[in-house]
Specification:
The protein has 870 residues and is α+β, with helices and mostly antiparallel strands. The chain has 7 domains: 7-58, no CATH class; 151-255, no CATH class; 288-346; 355-363 and 542-647, Beta Barrel (Elongation Factor Tu (Ef-tu), domain 3); 371-536, Rossmann fold; 660-767, Rossmann fold, CATH 3.40.50.10050; 770-867, Elongation Factor Tu (Ef-tu), domain 3. The protein is built from 25 helices and 37 strands. Strands 29, 30, 31, 32, 33, 34, 35, 36 and 37 form a 9-stranded antiparallel β-sheet that branches. It has a 6-stranded mixed β-sheet with strand order 11-12-10-13-14-15, sandwiched between helices. A 6-stranded antiparallel beta barrel has the order 17-18-23-21-20-24. Strand 20 (576-579) and strand 21 (582-590) form a beta hairpin. It binds guanosine-5'-diphosphate (GDP). Residues 378, 380-386, 427, 478-479, 481-482, 514-516 line the site of guanosine-5'-diphosphate (GDP). This is Translation initiation factor IF-2. Residues 118-178 have a biased composition (Basic and acidic residues).
């Protein structure tokens, strides 16, 4: 139906004289020049509102309360009636109108009291009960009123109908008498209603109610509007005003009290019968909602198929204030669900996990030999990286990407005796736990010991880790190309650690090699293959894959990427998987050569694209049959993780801790939120920081992740009083606002040692000098120019503080540090300047860095010494 009608047309539609309509419009405050002017939907609504008011409508509030309790459906039936006989025989249409009002059945039973015996919730329960009683009374009252009104209307209508029929008949007879000829039935039918109009001004002979065969307009919408409106005249008017569905929806939802969702469903069900048949509206949809220990309001709304706002509103009415993102406990959620007329069932928090387990068990099959997974350990500078590099360079089968191997966290090499996979874990001395994690998925540890240096502290540590994990060792005595190399000494020193070489009568293979020139590397590979044979490593090589995440990051172009090591089955492109609290569908697989294999079998590392987020290194992954299960498991895990994070006691800020430590008041809790540029650093920081806990202080990493510090990080930090640690990453603008307004302690670092040192000092209650980096200015890169003399020069605007020529700088992209260095040049127009202040444009040349891009930020900082005080 057209949204724009002229006044004349509208008058015809609503069966009101044009003049009267113009009058009404004028009264409603809308001036129109003449009957051919267009009336917009908005004007129709305004008029409708006006008419509703003038029809003596009760206050809008009363109407709102009334709204949810009943629905009224109008139905129209057209019958043909033949009047007269012989020559004067004519056919008239008789329209019978019926109206039915459905009153909502008794309210849902009160929620099981057993669920909420707790005194804390008594108040909510009381409010709920009160509101229920109120609603019940109101409902009865309205039902009574409505019944009376319906009867009244029905009586009136019948009177009108009789009157009209009589009138029509009289008119028809008169017509015929005047013309002297029998009118064609069609004409008479057309004439009849028109003639009848003045006699029944309130009546609504719609133009389409004529003879059979005439195309009926869909009437469902009329019924719907009639159902929603309370006032009879106004409702009829609404239908006739031909308001579009959207307009009506806007109107009905704009009324605050209308808990319209279930009702709308009822109404729609009724109207679905269309013009022809009349169907009882289907019952309101009662959903069974599984509620776990806690749920966010948004998730609950989704399960109820409601808008988040509706649920918030419903909760507000129950006296519970919550935002959409807030997590509510089980009992509150149950109350809300039942208040909204649905059923809550207790969700077993392990539902999806159980299904997952059953699922994984099904995937078992024949176990066939698989390649060994090797981790290289050893003391710093003994040549771990060199060995890994050498193997990668010389042994990895080069792929399509021009023979350039990619760092994906692991790679596999092919030897005449089979495939071997190496984990490419970074060998930072401080992060023994990282290595421990590496050992978990490792079959064999290669312990690198420099022949010129011998057994060192981290050599011993590595031995302990391998032992604890029950993983066999192979010793690589490295740097034998050096003149100072003394392999025998190494073997002797290892003896003291109960690592006995085969030639000493023990069972540990030892290989002398040089990672630099490659001597003996093949012997090492042979030794690994031999060890693998002894271990009889087996796995299911087909079917659904499972395994472990070894490295992950958020890639700017590709989204979350994770390198996984397949442990069982075969991971294929297109598979659905759960990966820690993330899930997704494998969009693409990449191997270490940059090529895209279709699948990866046991012990093969492969990079996965297509996850919902960045999983943590060390997370398990499992391929599941469909996305639903993947999503369920991931969401359940996520909810659990969030819960346990919330449960953790709020800690104290670093300064407070320092102050309280001196007073010797029990154990302090230091909450930290760690964000870093790569997952490796996150993991490393997490492990080493928590390890700093002692009797006096418990260090709690409540949240961690890859990427800039976001608004939600800032919120978490604010609520848990956590100190935020940004390692090579920065807070974005919205996060900064929250951090500033809540006094969150935010610290930026670029050296892992500094982080540990600072936390360690706090943990040990030391008062000393703290070196802090202070950001003194930020410039935004607007454009980049190439100059033959200076290389890339960034046209910048200083947006904060001051940029100084002789202070160190960092280049940030997406709140992540991409370069740290110095300024080559700082210019205003063509002048070299020492500093540029906020709000000023300048040209910046960065020393030894030509990759500055528009949109980057250049931050200028200085290191200052701060004396700690109590
Ligand atoms: P990592 O700390 O254990 O990873 O040790 P790196 O692989 O970084 O090696 C430390 C230093 O030892 C580097 O300067 C290497 O060039 C050197 N290096 C490693 N392997 C050998 C080797 O077999 N022979 C010699 N001469 N130098 C080596």
């Amino acid at each position: 139906m057209s949204q724009q009608t002229t006044i004349r047309k509208l008058a015809e539609l609503v069966n009101t004289p044009v003049e009267k309509l113009l009058e009404q419009l004028a009264e409603a405050g809308m001036k129109f020049g003449g009957p051919d002017q267009v009336v917009t939907s908005a004007e129709k609504i305004k008029l409708l509102g006006f008419l509703r008011r003038t029809h003596g409508k009760a206050s809008p509030q009363a109407e709102e309360v009334a709204a949810p309790k009943k629905i009224t459906l109008a139905r129209r039936k057209v019958q043909e009636l033949t009047v007269g006989g012989g020559r004067s025989k004519t056919t008239v249409n008789v329209e019978v109108r019926q109206k039915r009002t459905y009153v909502k059945a008794a309210e849902a039973p009160p929620p099981a009291v057993g669920e909420m015996a707790d005194g804390e919730r008594a108040e909510v329960l009381r409010k709920l009960e009160e509101s229920r009683q109120r609603n019940l009374a109101e409902q009865q009252r309205l039902a009574e009123a409505d019944r009376a009104r319906a009867e009244d209307l029905e009586r009136k209508r019948q009177e009108e109908e009789t009157q009209r029929l009589a009138e029509e008949q009289r008119k028809a007879e008169e017509d015929q008498r005047q013309k002297g000829v029998p009118a064609a039935p069609q004409d008479a039918a057309d004439a009849a209603p028109r003639a009848a109009r003045p006699a029944a001004p309130h009546h609504r002979p719609a133009p389409d109610r004529v003879a059979p065969g005439h195309k009926h307009k869909p009437r469902g919408s009329h019924a719907m509007v009639a159902g929603i409106e309370d006032d009879e005249a106004a409702s009829r008017f609404a239908g006739q005003l031909h308001l579009s569905a959207a307009d009506r929806a806007r109107r009905s939802s704009a009324r605050p009290g209308s808990r319209s969702k279930p009702r709308r469903q009822e109404v729609r069900g009724g109207a679905g019968g269309g013009a022809g048949g009349f169907e009882r509206p289907t019952a309101p949809v009662v959903r069974e909602v599984a509620v776990g220990d806690s749920i966010t309001v948004a998730d609950l709304a989704q399960k109820l198929a409601l808008k988040g706002g509706d649920v918030v509103k419903a909760m507000f009415k129950m006296g519970v204030m919550a935002t959409i993102t807030q997590t509510i406990d089980h009992d509150t959620a149950v109350l809300v669900v039942e208040e909204l007329g649905h059923k809550a069932v207790r969700a077993d928090s392990d539902d999806a996990e159980t299904e997952l387990l059953a699922h994984v068990e099904q995937a078992q099959g024949d176990r066939t030999p698989r390649p060994p997974v090797v981790t290289i350990m050893g003391h710093v500078d003994h040549g771990k990286t060199s060995l890994l590099d050498y193997l990668r360079r010389t042994k990895v089968a080069t792929g399509e990407a021009g023979g350039i191997t990619q760092h994906i966290g692991a790679y596999h090499v092919e030897t005449p005796k089979g495939v071997i996979s190496f984990l490419d874990t970074p060998g930072h001395a401080a992060f023994t736990s990282m290595r421990a994690r590496g050992a978990k998925l490792t079959d064999i540890v290669v312990l690198v010991v420099a022949a010129d240096d011998g057994v060192m502290p981290q050599t011993k540590e590595a031995i302990q880790h391998a032992r604890a994990a029950g993983v066999p060792l192979i010793v690589a005595i490295n740097k034998i190309d050096k003149s100072t190399a003394d392999p025998l000494r190494v073997k002797n020193e290892l003896l003291a650690e109960q690592v006995v070489a085969e030639d000493f009568g023990g069972d540990t293979q030892m290989v002398e090699l040089s990672a630099k020139v490659g001597t003996g590397v093949d012997d090492l590979l042979d030794a690994i293959s031999l060890q693998a044979e002894v271990l009889e490593l087996r796995a299911v090589s087909e079917g659904r894959a499972s395994g472990v995440v070894i490295e992950s990051a958020l890639d700017k172009g590709r989204g979350p990427v994770a390198t996984v090591l397949v442990q069982e089955g075969r991971l294929k492109k297109g598979d659905y998987l759960v990966c820690g609290v993330q899930y997704g569908r494998v969009r693409a697989l990449f191997d270490e050569t940059g090529s895209q294999p279709d699948s990866a079998g046991p012990s093969i590392p492969v990079q996965v694209l297509g996850l919902s987020g960045v999983p943590d290194a060390g997370d398990d992954f499992v391929v599941v049959k469909d996305e639903r299960l993947a999503k369920d498991v991931a969401q359940q895990r996520d909810a659990k993780r969030r819960e346990s994070r919330l449960v953790q006691s709020a800690g104290s800020r670093m300064e407070d801790i320092m102050a309280q430590m001196g007073k010797g008041e029990g154990q302090q809790v230091l909450n930290l939120l760690v964000k870093a540029d790569v997952q490796g650093s996150v993991e490393a920081l997490k492990q080493s920081l928590t390890a700093l806990s002692n009797d006096q202080i418990r260090i709690n990493v409540i949240s961690s992740g890859v990427g800039g510090i976001t608004e939600s990080d800032a919120n978490v930090a604010a609520t848990t009083k956590a100190t935020v640690i940004g390692f090579n990453v920065r807070a974005d603008a919205s996060a900064r606002r929250i951090i500033e307004s809540n006094g969150v302690d935010l610290r930026y670092f670029s050296i892992i040692y500094d982080v540990i040192d600072q936390v360690k000092q706090v943990a040990s209650g030391l008062l000393g000098v703290e070196i802090r980096e202070e950001i003194i200015g930020i410039a935004e890169v607007r454009d980049v120019f190439r100059s033959s003399k200076f290389g890339a020069v960034a046209g910048c605007m200083v947006v904060e503080g001051v940029v100084k020529r002789n202070k160190p700088i960092r280049v940030l992209r997406d709140n992540t540090v991409v370069f740290e260095g110095e300024l080559e040049s700082l210019r205003r127009f063509k002048e070299n300047v020492e500093e540029v202040r906020n709000g000023t444009e300048c040209g910046i040349g960065v020393k030894e860095y030509n990759d500055v891009k528009p949109g980057d930020q250049i931050e200028c900082f200085e290191r200052i010494e701060v004396q700690r005080t109590l």
